[in-house]
Amino acid sequence: MRSSLFTVTSQRTYHHGDLRHAVLTAALDVIAAEGPGALSLRDLARRAGVSHAAPAHHFKDRTGLLTAIAAEGWGLLAEALADAPELRERGVAYVRFAMAHPAHFQVMFQPELLRGDDPGLTAARQRAGDQLRTGVAQLPDAGRGEDARLAEIAAWTLAHGFATLLLSRSLNGPPADRDPEEVFRSLAGLLFR
Q: Are strands 14-16 and 6-8 parallel, antiparallel or unpaired?
């Protein structure tokens, strides 16, 4: 937990400048260490030194908290993809995002944990999807209609699958001992010329 989010008074009570941010940060730490199944609003409240009802004020329940994490993750992913100039580099940005935000990445792709109709989640997912589609549209032979959609799926599958293999430490030996970004560029070069 980041101590800069709290100040301790002489009565040993805690004041949060931003409880929502503190709870999200603590939740991401728990997810990264133990997975989303270990998450409890009561435990997060205890960690933050607030009443057990305080986190519910911001998130309503565990599902609301996980939905907020997923929406934040999709937003961060959309920003990362938007900064990349072309499809291959958008894939690199995707892999880089997954490695930098493993807890977000884990939650984003577990729809059974989320409120799928949440407007913030839906909008963030749409922005990230738009960025991927923009990268695919730059391919000279991406085509239209079904071919373009299949190219989107292929690009997403490559980036997501590679990121998942890295995060789960499923790759052994070469190319696991090389820079993941360079490995991804090589993989993308094989499929998207």
A: antiparallel
Position 156: which residue type? W
Alpha carbons 76 and 69: distance in angstroms, whole number: 11
Residue labelled with tokens 């998207």: 192
Burial of 101 (0-12, 13-18, 19+ CB in 10 A): buried
The domain ranges of the chain are 3-59, 63-191
CB 69 within 8 A of CB 103: yes
Which residue type is seen at 62? R
**Residue 122 CA neighbour count, 13 Å, CB half:** 5
77 in Cβ contact with 94 (< 8 Å):
yes
> In this structure, what DSSP letter does residue 111 have?
G
In CATH, what class is 3-59? Answer: mainly alpha
Gyration radius from the chain CA atoms: 19
Q: Which CATH class is domain 63-191?
A: mainly alpha
pTM score, whole prediction = 0.84
pLDDT in tens, 57-105: 889 899 999 999 999 999 999 999 999 989 999 999 999 999 999 999 9
